[in-house]
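Field: COMPLEX_INPUT
Field: COMPONENT_COUNT = two
Field: RESIDUE_TOTAL = 470
Field: MODE = joint
Values follow.
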Amino acid sequence: MIVVLSAGALATVQDLGRSGSLNLGVGWSGAMDPLALAAGNILLRNEENAAAIEIPVFPFRVRFARSTVFAVTGADCAPRLDDVPVLPWWAQRAEAGQVLSLSVPKTATWQASRAYLCVAGGIEVPLVLGSRSTQLRGAFGGHEGRPLQDGDTVPIADPGRRPRSSFGLVPPGLVLACEADGLAAVRVLPAAEYECFTPASHDALWSTPWKITPQSNRYGYRLAGDELKPVRPLELRSHGIVPGVIQVPHGGQPIIQMRDAQPSGGYPKIGTVIEADLWRLGQAPIGSSIRFVQCSWDQALDARAETRRWLKNARRLVELHCSQGGGGDD
Amino acid sequence: MTDAFDHVDQLCAWLADTDISLLELTSPTRTMRLLNDGSRVAVETIDGTEGAHQPALLVRALAPGIFLQQHPLRDRAIAAIGDDIAADASLGLLQIGPLLLPVSAPLTGTVTNVLARHGTVVGYGTPLFELQPLGDEGEA
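Field: COMPLEX_OUTPUT
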């Protein structure tokens, strides 16, 4: 069990998401950086989809009620266990009563904004429509369908396999880097209404920076940059949309749908950020600028395969290390 | 493993029958000199707390990998020369693909030298750190 001492704001229980319910009007939810969550679960020998706590606002503090092996992945928020520094992306044992403190992420080597507190066994909340993710709009899933509050007690599932501690993973963001002109970049497939925009809008989309405005959250990112204009006014009926879709409302400033996006919308879509790069957006801090890089369907599938290869290889090496009796305690 | 310090009498007897004039026994916490002047063997013990005489301990790579002095997300070394490190705490890291393993201090001590360069490939047994044991605390 974890006792939340300082919840920050909008910290939520998330797994890899609630797929297959868009037809019911229920969006994906799930970790904004699914790669960090999956890596944390690999470190702790959890199943890939085990739930963790996503932390977007700091400081954040919890107390472990029992001896627990944990890992903090995602943004490096200088974790401390009581007063002792703990490495990021590192399996570490906390004894009963110890307090974990996370502070505002350092962005010196990797610009990232969300941390994941993963625990051996995973966060134990009921499955709703097949997922433990918090559905904020519907107020269900996760911990009572809401962000964590000070004083909450969050149960941890019994880890089936014995977790190991005292080893880590290299953050995949450093290896799978994607940049354009020194800015973090995400790959984009042109979407259904791409051809309805002016050539100048196409140029702006692919070759100018887009700033992530403060009106950005788990629902969507509102971007600021050159105005994107359709050749002639477009009116569409509402239709199904998924996270990653880049909509252009009348003001010409794009909105990227994120994990908590509603499953339908009516704005024209100029592009879609590929699934393999959604974690990059999930970590992009508010106020930072990103670039869009055009890619093909095949490149999008290759990017997804590359991510899966990284995870598979990490899983293999962690299991090999643990089966050799490596790792610290027990 | 048999500790040579438990068999000093036997070693002295053997030494007396040889031409060897000095046998020095060293452990992380103490040093013993057996001096053979041809007629008798004298035993001289150097206490581990006498730092000046105490040999530094080499911390070696326990696996082949890429030696990292700092975490990939950090710009500061985990342990630099002059730092006091507690037993079992990390001095550095070994990277094997995406895996990071700790290079741990076998006992409490002061880092006196870093023997491998950050980012270089090291083999099994490559010396990575020189650690000057901090006598009493190391055994505590």
